[in-house]
Amino acid sequence: MRIPLRSFARAPDFESPDEVDAGAELAASYASACYASAGALEGAVRDLTLRASRLRYIRGRLAADLLATRGWSALGFVRLGDYSRERHGVSGRTLEEDARVARSLERLPGMTGEFLAATLSWTQVRLLTLVAKPRDEQRWIAVAKTCDTRTLESQIKIRHPSETQESAADPEDEAAVRFSVRISRSGRRLWRAACEYAERSAGSALRQAQVLELVVAEAASGAPHPSPAPVSMFGSAPARRTHHGSRRFSLAGDTPLHPRIVQPARSPDLGRFLEDVARDEGLSKPFPPQCESMPAGDVRATFHWDDVRDPFVLDARLREVKLAMQRIDADLGRLLKLAVERRLHRASGFASFAEYVDARFEFCLRKAWTLIAVERASLRACAELATAYRSGEISHLAANILLPVMNSRHGSAWIERARLVTLRRLEAEVSWALDRRDAADGAESVAVVAPPPLDHVLETDTPSVIDREQLEARASAEPPVAAQDGMCAAPSAAGASDDEVQMRAARNSAELHFLVPSSVASLAESTMLALRRGSESRGAAFERMVASALFEWTSAPSHRDPVFARDGWRCAVPACRSRRNLHDHHILFRSHGGGNDRDNRVTVCAAHHLHGLHAGRIRAHGRAPSQIVWELGCQGTSREPLARLLGDRYLHREAGAAR
């Protein structure tokens, strides 16, 4: 029997911070008391995911109109990914996928009715819209009702491999193995420097798996070829798991499907559905004010109203939906933490929590662990983190960026910084703080690092790490020399006991882990084995591989430009992550009397230069590099800009809130 979730999921609106903390404690105690059984807890999580899927449908409809008009361009962004990350805290691929599903449902009224009636989940609908056509949608609906989502996905991949290959929900889902290595703190600084140089070489932001691929390719070209063939240093790469723990269904991949055609559910009224979502989640205008009763098939007529073409209106409504989804995520993180602590997956017959989440719920394992980590960090280090996330002051991506620096001493300062700056700047400041912590060799006085001063000029090329002599020593065949700036591990003190040596080694080490394609993992292992010297550890061999790639990159002739070098070889427009096709832009146009002094020149990408600044959608004035005021989303003088920033810092809280 499910316990009603409404009183817990819809927490009251508190006004003061003390009341918010008291409300969070009350909700936590309520959750522990009410969800005493595994069934009640699982039912609560399912109710939350159902509410989130309804909001995702509305987000998909709004995103479809935004994509159709390329509305992000009018808002001062030239790439969908930059806009979605900064304004909504999700990747551009997520918005595109939601829009694809929403558009596909326009021609599938039967499937739309099943989704609105909650007989099909969002994940099932997302998979079915890849292959379903109006002539066979009832057959696919019947298939979906007789198997779980993993079995449904496998059947669709077998029968339509080309469709599913091009419509993967997330590129990171293609990673097959987990690459993990324990390295020193100085090695982790080398890795951050390698990430910076790899992005400069690629001209765009990269995932860690992509950086590893570039590092391995560079280091392998100069590594000796061992004979016989190398063996992986951690064993053979595990095969990709295809069975995800569901014990209720076991359809083979080549089993023919002869489903029984079931009658579709009675199509709910779409206007009533939107009204219910708006009332339950506190949305103001997700649908037309005078929305008449319409069947589920009239999706386009329902979602089209007079101001739908205005990108500012679409952006405001998308942000409203995003805030409602984050309130659900906050409650979901609290319940998932409770489920992990109670080993709920074992009570449900699953061997691991990963298999349980994969088979039962409508979100990926990565998101589940992130929500659990945010909840744990708020309880352990800073209660303000959960409050800021629930209220939408920081986004899902911002909370994930802040997790490595959350602590009881400076947690509030970091959250305040996340409210004031762009995601791009927040990532740079967190990387700066972690680099300082690693350079301190774990010393107690600076192991917990506060945010840098506001508008502080960060060292973009980390000169303390990239020392060519040290890089050459670490990449060479000779044993590493003593480091002058934390490049190598410090020798153990004379007379120290084994326990003290182990504790010092544990304090000065860190684990690097991420998902990579199996081919990249295999090549990385063989390259590390080829570079390994004597009884050198696997982590030391990894650091040697990274140092070898960095040494080659820094040895290559580079383009000399003082303006580009000053701006870190990236576009200076706030929230832009582009590093390619860079232009030298005059802040005060030469046609308006601007000179060629460096304080009147700034680095911008070609798209922002041509379609933003010279098209009038972006305005910039001030002096480079740190005193430029940017105005994004300019539409003449009749409307205020979407956002106004000094560098990467928002100048008014309304524009910077809820990122």
Structure description:
The protein is built from 30 helices and eight strands. The protein is an alpha+beta fold. The protein has a four-stranded antiparallel beta sheet. It has a two-stranded antiparallel sheet with strand order 1-2. Strands 3-4 form a two-stranded antiparallel ribbon. α3 packs across α6, α12 crosses α13 and α13 crosses α26. The N terminus and C terminus are likely disordered.
Report Rg: 27 Å
Terminal Cα separation, in Å? 38 Å
Strand order of the largest sheet: 5-6-7-8
* Outline type: globular
Binned strand content: 5-15%
Poorly predicted tracts of residues: 1-24, 166-175, 225-267, 288-307, 460-464, 479-495, 654-659
Helicity range of the residues?
40-55%
Count of DSSP H/I helices: 30
- Derived from helix and strand composition plus strand pairing, the structural class reads alpha+beta
- Major β-sheet annotation: 4 strands, antiparallel
Strand element count: 8
- Average pLDDT score: 75
What's the structural blueprint in terms of helices and strands?
Blueprint: H1 6-9, H2 17-34, H3 38-69, H4 71-74, H5 80-88, H6 92-105, H7 109-116, H8 122-128, H9 137-145, H10 149-159, H11 161-166, E1 177-184, H12 185-202, H13 208-220, H14 270-281, H15 299-303, H16 311-341, H17 344-347, H18 353-360, H19 365-380, H20 384-391, H21 396-402, H22 411-420, H23 423-439, H24 468-475, H25 498-507, E2 509-516, H26 518-531, H27 538-555, H28 562-566, E3 582-586, E4 601-605, H29 606-613, E5 618-623, E6 627-632, E7 643-646, E8 649-650, H30 653-656
Antiparallel strand pairs: 1-2, 3-4, 5-6, 6-7, 7-8
